[in-house]
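User: Show me a protein chain along with its predicted structure.
Assistant: Here is one chain, sequence first, then structure tokens.
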Amino acid sequence: MKVFKRLLLGLFILIVTAGTISFFYFKNKFLSAPPNELTISNVGQSFDFIWKSHKVGDKVIPNSYMFVPVSLPGIDQTFYMQFDTGAKSTVLLYENVISVNEKYGTIFQIDTLDNQVRVLDAKFKVGTVDVTANSLGFKGRGTAIDWENNSFIILGTVGNDFIEQNPIIIDYKNKNMTLIEATDKRIINEDDFLPFTFDGRRIFLSAQLNNEPIELWYDSGSSAYELIVDEDTFKDMSKPNSKITTYEGSSWGKKTKISNVASEGMFEFGNTSVPLTYVSYVEIPGTEMLQSVLKLANIGGDLGGMTGNKLFLEKTLIIDAPNLRYAVKN
């Protein structure tokens, strides 16, 4: 009996400890963000973005990556950065930046700040928008640029610091976006806004699925998926007798296992309806803790999950971060 009680006590401590670690991670890592280093100006004009496909095995995913044009001062060449609302901050690729400096001189000032290698006092344009950054970090090394054979040169990722102080209109159908002032008449006259949360510069959209309220973590870097859920929800939302298709992908250099299965339902974003046709479950080695965090946040509960661009491909999405509201328009 004493042994049984000790086992129960040990199990209880394990559960409490795991919950505490998950909560600590959730509050201090997942839902926190470093200071915004960007200063944004010259807003109000639309600019085009570009889709890039991705081949996984014999499967081609046409709208995998969303890239925006980037120009650097004094250089007559267009570069590109991925537009990724799953990224808290704008980041660069180290080897790519080194290649630019080697070809054009010291365009990027690289130094050590708080024991981290960063780019200081950067100036560039994202589309038509002028951006000044006190400092930018690196995410991934990238590769040296092959100037002769590569005309589509990627410098890094544009994150949610870009939209934190200004609303953005993403016109998926016409493949363009517009960063605007909060007083712009295009959103002042909008009457179909819904609330969202922006904790840690992560976007959680409030919506409905099959007349039930949900929270959707919006990550434009997860372009190919309608709804990513945890493993248990994946099983619950699968249509009976549906075949699960599985293939390998990658996320920030880590191999992923992606499973898709047919589902059915209807999202309601205010007055705009979007059908749900399948759900996905993504396994990334070393991110088991994230699955716990998703459940703790009620993102991966009975209905909620992560969504990318797939649901909005024929729509216009307005993200008004300064006022914590959004709208989906036909």
